[in-house]
């Protein structure tokens, strides 16, 4: 996969999904204020008893983006402590991740498809090529966790819809 293809259409879309997710936090705050409950309730919301809560979904989406950006650009991912409790802390986690991702220049992804990425949970000695990591781990996991965060908010009544999920669309005149 070419350098430009690795960066522009894929990583930037994952970053955009985090930005979309951050915008949903505004809707969550407005909903909680209108219904007169603490927005923190939504931060711990989940769809099923054995599912991780909303905060975890955001942390995981951020981790896949910052990990992918770092590993594919030849860096070590920044560490986040996973100690967010409030909506403002969740918002800050998203912003830190987006800032890091946007700081990486396209040229830093040169050779990304052939870089080797190891997963802490993978069998000993097993790695993924960068292209496979991007397409089999980063993208599906980012979208999975963002989708779960979206679903938790929707399930709890937050007024967000498909266009909020998709985010800004770059329409052009023919």
Task: Describe, in short, the structure shown.
The chain has helices at 3-35, 40-43, 54-72, 87-103, 130-155, 162-166; strands at residues 116-118, 127-129. It is 60% helix and 3% strand.
Please give the structural blueprint.
Elements: H1 3-35, H2 40-43, H3 54-72, H4 87-103, E1 116-118, E2 127-129, H5 130-155, H6 162-166
Antiparallel strand pairs: 1-2
Helix pairs in contact: 1-3, 1-4, 1-5, 3-4, 3-5
Terminal residue distance: 29 Å
CATH architecture type: Up-down Bundle
Mean pLDDT comes to 92
**How many helices does DSSP assign?**
6
- Taken together, the total number of domains comes to 1
- The radius of gyration over CA amounts to 17 Å
Strand order of the largest sheet: 1-2
Name of the CATH first level: Mainly Alpha
Percentage of residues in DSSP E strands: under 5%
**SS content category:** mainly alpha
**Poorly predicted parts:** none
CATH superfamily: dinb family like domain
Helix and strand element order: HHHHEEHH
Beta strands, count: 2
Shape: globular
**Which percent range fits the helix content?**
55-70%
Q: Any idea of the CATH topology?
A: Four Helix Bundle (Hemerythrin (Met), subunit A)
């Amino acid at each position: 996969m070419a350098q430009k293809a690795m960066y522009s259409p894929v990583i930037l879309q994952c970053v955009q999904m985090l930005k979309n997710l951050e915008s949903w936090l505004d809707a969550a705050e407005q909903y909680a204020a209108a219904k007169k409950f603490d927005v923190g309730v939504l931060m711990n919301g989940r769809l099923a008893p054995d599912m991780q809560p909303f905060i975890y979904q955001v942390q995981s989406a951020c981790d896949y983006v910052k990990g992918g950006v770092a590993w594919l650009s030849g860096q070590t991912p920044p560490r986040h402590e996973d100690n967010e409790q409030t909506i403002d802390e969740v918002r800050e986690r998203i912003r830190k991740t987006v800032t890091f991702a946007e700081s990486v220049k396209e040229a830093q992804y040169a050779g990304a498809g052939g870089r080797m990425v190891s997963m802490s949970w993978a069998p000993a000695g097993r790695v993924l090529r960068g292209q496979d990591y991007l397409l089999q781990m980063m993208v599906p996991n980012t979208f999975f966790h963002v989708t779960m965060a979206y679903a938790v908010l929707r399930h709890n009544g937050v007024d967000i819809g498909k266009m909020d999920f998709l985010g800004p669309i770059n329409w052009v005149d023919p």
